[in-house]
Design brief:
The complex is a heterodimer of chains A (396) and B (220). Chain A is an alpha+beta fold and 396 residues long. Chain A folds into two domains: 197 residues, no CATH class; 128 residues. Chain A is 55% helix and 19% strand. Chain A is built from 15 helices and 13 strands. In chain A, strands 1, 2, 4, 5, 6, 7, 8, 9, 10, 12 and 13 form an eleven-stranded mixed beta sheet that branches. Chain A has a two-stranded antiparallel ribbon with strand order 3-11. In chain A, a hairpin with a 2-residue loop joins β4 and β5. In chain A, α2 crosses α12. The two termini of chain A are 36 Å apart. Chain B is an alpha/beta fold and 220 residues long. Chain B contains seven helices and ten strands. Helices cover 32% and strands 25% of the residues of chain B. Classes of the chains: A alpha+beta (396), B alpha/beta (220). Chains A and B meet through α1, α11 and α15 of A and α2 of B.
Chain lengths: 396, 220
């Protein structure tokens, strides 16, 4: 019995050679389609993972101050009001903003020295140097993302000069560099002590940009957030809201993903269908002949299944591999501007690429299944017809 | 023994172009004989042959191989029966053009548990017997009509079938090939094979043990 299946396998591969034009057309089409879609999907997966990481690194709640409906600096003393809410473990002050270097914009974050243990959690690891310490206030020591280090060609121990919006130059001393050039969260980040950030941004005395709230492990952040609703002028952001913000950023490109999926589906279906028609008469005749020789309907289906699966899996796998290399190693030239989109991330930023099982399965599903349908179904229909009729119709 | 009872085949039944190709034909074919179905074009010879070869389902009637009413069996059973017992030679030869002669000959073996490669020598012996061994590895499209018909003959015989169905086997071949075919068919009969031929070749009738003349779908 096993020998028969080996025979059918052998015959299927012979068919791939025999219908080499059809095989070549399908392989080339699938390669183009899957390269494009896998580059997009793997990058989208990478971006979503980065978003997940960023959100998980954020405080349980972030409190901002609203004035006239707009976000304004918050008095540090406001932390007293927040910390009195049941369930709040610690409230940390934070000042963050943007700084331009050349044509690029980077994120400056000033952390409260009292809560560096909490803040340390946001950092996966350092490539070199050290993280900030409690005594780093007013020292101008900074930890920078690897992307910035690479662009400015600085190492731990070097100094950099940043120009604030009030056109004051400040010298900072690099004490650490974050690792992971693909991490959106740390790539463009310049972390310094809160006092240094306040000085740099010329914040008024006693003001910060927001408060970071960490709640007890036994308390739900949502419960604490609902209690904060009664605080005047407060805008409370939990991790879900932050995640929605990230997703909205990706959502802006959702149309591109949808369009690409549609193009892929329609393209693959059309190509597979046209190829099925091209070889339709020949294939119908062949099925009739094989049935005459004693190939059963199941044998015919097995042959066409093997052919389609071999073609589909080979072309799709190769397409995904090329798509991965194109995105991960060549940074998806031509696609990167569409995919990345964030104005503050320079082109030197490497696309975060991640291959999820879900994406791999989806790509296989939209390529292999249409091919199976357009090849196996006609073969089955022919196989359940009398062999003589199948051959006669093919000859007609 | 093959026995057909009141076989009828109606194409496009119920449609404007309904055609009765075979009507109420009954016949018996003894084992180890050559039976020729003859008659003018369109008389139903090929349809009758196809029904007896189980590659065309009759509209009504019964076909017995021995005591087995094969039409009552499943498609899977009929397919297996064809695989184990039948060899076909078609009027239009029906070789796969992109394959070599020997690849076409070995094709029926792919549906079985046999190793097609192990039949290569036997295929060469038969090709040699039919005088085209030197064409074994040529693509079908490189062969003449007569050579192709001889390849088709070898393909039908490669599994040493008990029944051979040949539809107009000499219609497109030259005289030399025709004589080879007569000789091979006679030898098959002599080794106990049952051969059913559809033809209007008078020379082929001469080697037949029995001739069944058909006209307008009926046996006369």
């Amino acid at each position: 019995m096993m020998k028969k299946h080996m025979n059918l396998l052998s015959y299927s591969f012979d068919c791939l050679k025999r219908y080499r034009m059809r095989s070549a057309v399908i392989i080339i089409t699938f390669l183009i389609a899957t390269t494009m879609i896998s580059a997009v999907l793997f990058t989208k997966d990478g971006l979503e993972r980065e978003a997940q990481f960023s959100v998980s690194a954020a405080p349980d709640l972030t409190v901002q101050y609203l004035k006239a409906g707009r976000v304004a600096p918050i008095q540090a003393s406001y932390a007293q009001n927040v910390s009195q809410i049941p369930g709040v473990e610690i409230v940390l002050q934070r000042t963050w903003g943007y700084v331009g270097i050349g044509t690029n914009t980077f994120t400056v974050i000033g952390l409260d020295p009292a809560g560096l243990n909490y803040s340390r959690g946001v950092v996966t690891s350092l490539e070199s140097g050290r993280f900030l310490m409690a005594n780093d206030s007013n020292t101008s020591n900074i930890v920078i993302g690897e992307l910035i280090a690479g662009m400015l060609k600085v190492e731990v121990g070097d100094d950099i000069i940043l120009l604030s919006e009030s056109i004051d130059a400040t010298r900072f001393h690099v004490v650490g560099i974050f690792s992971g050039d693909s991490s959106i969260y740390t790539a463009d980040m310049i972390v310094m002590a809160l006092a240094d950030a306040n000085n740099f941004f010329k914040m008024s005395l006693g003001e910060v940009t927001d408060l970071c709230v960490y709640v007890n492990s036994s308390t739900s952040p949502k419960d604490v957030a609902s209690q904060m609703a009664s605080l005047p002028n407060a805008r409370v952001l939990d991790q879900d809201i932050l995640m929605r913000g990230y997703k909205a950023a990706y959502g802006a490109r959702g149309g591109i993903f949808t369009t690409l999926w549609t193009i892929l589906l329609v393209g693959v279906a059309l190509i597979a269908f046209s190829q099925a028609i091209v070889v339709g008469h020949e294939s119908r005749f062949e099925v009739g002949l094989l049935k005459t020789f004693g190939f059963s309907t199941l044998d015919i289906i097995e042959i066409r299944l093997i052919e389609s699966l071999a073609l589909g899996f080979f072309a799709t796998s190769l397409g995904m591999l090329i798509g991965f290399v194109y995105a991960a190693y060549f940074n998806a030239p031509g696609l990167v501007d569409i995919l990345l989109g964030w104005a503050f991330l320079p082109r030197e930023f490497h696309l975060p690429v991640y291959v999820s099982l879900e994406s791999v399965f989806s790509i296989f599903a939209v390529t292999v299944i249409p091919l199976l349908i357009t090849t196996v179904v006609p073969a089955w229909l022919n196989a359940i017809t009398d062999p003589e009729l199948a051959m006669r119709r093919a000859a007609a | 023994m093959i026995e057909a009872r009141t076989l009828t085949k109606i194409y496009n039944k119920g449609k404007f172009n309904e055609t009765t190709a075979v009507s109420d034909v009954s016949l018996k074919i003894s084992d180890g004989t050559i039976v020729a179905l003859t008659g003018p074009s369109g008389c139903g010879k090929t349809t009758m042959l196809s029904m007896l070869g189980l590659i065309l389902t009759p509209s009504s009637g019964e076909i017995f191989f021995g005591r087995e009413n094969v039409l009552a069996s499943s498609d899977y059973w009929k397919t297996s029966f064809r695989r184990e017992n039948f060899g076909f030679i078609f009027q239009h030869i029906n070789l796969l053009q992109q394959y070599t002669a020997i690849e076409n000959i070995l094709l029926p073996l792919y549906a079985s548990d046999s190793d097609p490669g192990s039949y290569r020598e036997k295929a060469k012996e038969l090709l040699s017997k039919l005088g085209i061994l030197n064409r074994a590895n040529h693509l079908v499209e490189q062969l003449s009509g007569g050579e192709q018909q001889r390849v088709a003959f070898v393909r039908a015989l490669i599994k040493d079938p008990k029944y051979i169905f040949a539809d107009e086997p000499t219609v497109f071949v030259d005289e030399e090939t025709s004589h080879i075919i007569y000789k091979v068919l006679s030898e098959l009969r002599d080794t106990g094979k049952t051969v059913v031929i559809s033809s209007h070749d008078p020379d082929l009738m001469k080697i037949a043990d029995e001739t069944c003349r058909m006209t307008k779908g009926k046996l006369i």
